[in-house]
Design a protein that fits this description.
The protein is mainly alpha-helical. The protein is built from 26 helices and eight strands. Helix content is 58%, strand content 7%.
């Protein structure tokens, strides 16, 4: 509880003290709305009141019910739910939910957890899980106590060793009364585990869908800089600013709720694949790839869907499940290469090149990777040369990739058979590149402090004046004939323009 005195208290003046004590204002911290709850409410309200999106959202009858139940929760319960929602969606032991100071004490947190369980926002009963998953949730002291009960292990083994020994004993030993030992060990482990909580899947999916519609360009489990709740905090703090503009929806990105759900599933798989690849867990990436392969093949073979997606501009195709599944395929093939499963990678790249609808700007990379595998692994130079010719003549391959393919073809042309060499024209091996205009920009590192962090940023020197990179780019587009508003829009939306060559033509 906090006491706020509205008048200054001067020592020795009793009347002033009396006057001040009358103006004491008691602030209940449980009713204070922190930034994360305020941003969460803003996102939910924005989507539910948007006529272009709420029709799609409320196709699911559960959605409106969940949002109404959330509104009826007291502020403290909403705060705790959002806190848990922003964490990993796994089972959490009660001692890991450390918000006692924020909500008063442990009893208050227990009461809020019970309220969320009664409202079906949390679940506290462990379902039919595998024994290994339950043992993995135990701490080392709890694992040692369980091992002591069943006389498992000697000395001072680690948690991993105890887990392996416990599972081994469950597989090999039988109880004298015919009861499965695994069930007995499982019940003992659940008892040791104590109270556990997890965000319920049905409600979680509703709120994830709301956040997804609010910021389709980045997944919710992406790095925190792309998290919409953190982004709103930066906006409210004045760290970032966006121009005021009117958004016109001339085309609906999703025709139905099922289409949106397929998009969400594909995006989740892509995020998991990217995270596993960054952590060098290539077998996990391969399993995600194999899981996504049947869905991708079904989408590609659907001629009606392919015709519909092909009619869209390239930047709108990014919001289709087929586009995201193609990115999963691409990441999976990179993992297969790292796992030395080259033949499967070759077949996968062949499949990608058979379609031209999804991620067409990566076709040059696919041709390049495939020819490298054919040359270095299978030693099939003629097959690689024919593939290089196909890539060079493909109008969807970008110029920089075409140049790389031409250079590779030129290097292997002397080792090809005569019939294959006859198919190669002089132009396809003798591309020349114009020398670029040399632009020299002087800059220096300047110390900076922002958001409590110190570091350095580059200041570019231009005619004895310093400017940031954004200001330098803005000046460039203004000198090229763009208006102030157009130049700012180019900087913000440059990566989603369907054809960057239009900017070059305008600049000339």
């Amino acid at each position: 509880m906090a006491e706020v005195f509205t008048a200054a208290i001067e020592s020795g003046e009793e009347e002033e003290v009396e006057r001040s004590s009358k103006n004491v204002e008691i602030v209940d911290e449980s009713t204070v709305v922190p930034y994360y709850l305020e941003s969460f409410r803003f996102i939910v309200r924005s989507i539910s009141e948007d006529s272009s999106l709420n029709t799609l959202l409320f196709e699911d009858p559960l959605c409106e019910v969940v949002l109404q139940r959330f509104e009826k929760l007291q502020t403290s319960a909403q705060r705790l739910y959002v806190r848990l929602f922003l964490r990993k969606h796994v089972w959490l032991k009660r001692e890991k939910i450390r918000y006692d100071k924020e909500f008063g004490d442990a009893a208050a947190v227990d009461g809020l957890l019970d309220e969320l369980c009664r409202g079906s926002f949390l679940e506290s009963h462990i379902p039919e899980m595998e024994l290994e998953e339950i043992l993995g949730m135990l701490s080392l002291p709890q694992m040692k106590e369980l091992a002591k009960q069943f006389r498992i292990g000697v000395g001072n083994p680690s948690k991993k060793e105890l887990l392996v020994l416990t599972l081994k004993k469950v597989r090999e030993q039988r109880t004298p009364f015919g009861l499965p030992l695994g069930k007995i060990v499982k019940n003992a482990a659940v008892k040791l585990l104590g109270k556990v909580y997890r965000v319920r899947n049905a409600e979680k999916e509703i709120f994830m869908r709301v956040l997804s519609l609010f910021q389709l360009t980045a997944g919710f489990s992406s790095p925190i800089g792309e998290n919409p709740i953190f982004g709103l905090l930066q906006l409210n703090m004045g760290v970032v600013k966006f121009p005021v503009c009117e958004v016109l929806f001339d085309h609906s990105l999703f025709s139905s709720l099922d289409e949106l759900k397929r998009f969400e599933i594909a995006r989740g798989m892509l995020e998991d694949a990217n995270l596993s690849f960054e952590e060098r867990r290539f077998p996990d990436v391969k399993s995600i790839y194999l899981k996504a392969l049947p869905a991708w093949e079904t989408i590609v073979e659907d001629k009606g869907l392919t015709a519909k997606i092909s009619s869209l501009p390239p930047y709108q195709r990014k919001f289709s499940s087929g586009y995201l599944y193609t990115k999963v395929m691409e990441r999976g093939l990179e993992a297969l290469e790292r796992l030395d499963e080259k033949s499967d990678a070759i077949n996968g790249y062949m499949q990608l090149l058979e379609q031209t609808t999804y991620v067409p700007h990566h076709r040059g990379d696919w041709f390049n990777r495939l020819t490298i595998l054919l040359i270095r692994v299978d030693k099939r130079l003629d097959a690689a040369a024919k593939l290089l010719l196909r890539g060079i003549r493909d109008h969807l391959v970008r110029p920089q990739h075409r140049l790389e393919l031409c250079d590779r073809l030129r290097r292997i042309s002397n080792r090809l058979t005569a019939p294959t060499r006859k198919q190669i024209t002089c132009q396809e091996t003798s591309w020349t590149v114009r020398e670029p205009v040399v632009v020299e920009i002087r800059g220096k590192l300047c110390p900076t402090e922002q958001s409590g962090r110190s570091g350095f940023h580059v200041m570019f020197m231009q005619q004895d004046s310093a400017s940031r990179v954004e200001e330098l780019a803005l000046t460039h587009y203004l000198e090229a004939g763009f208006s102030q508003g157009e130049a700012k829009l180019v900087l913000i939306c440059f990566d989603i323009f369907p054809d960057a060559s239009c900017l070059c033509r305008r600049a000339r």
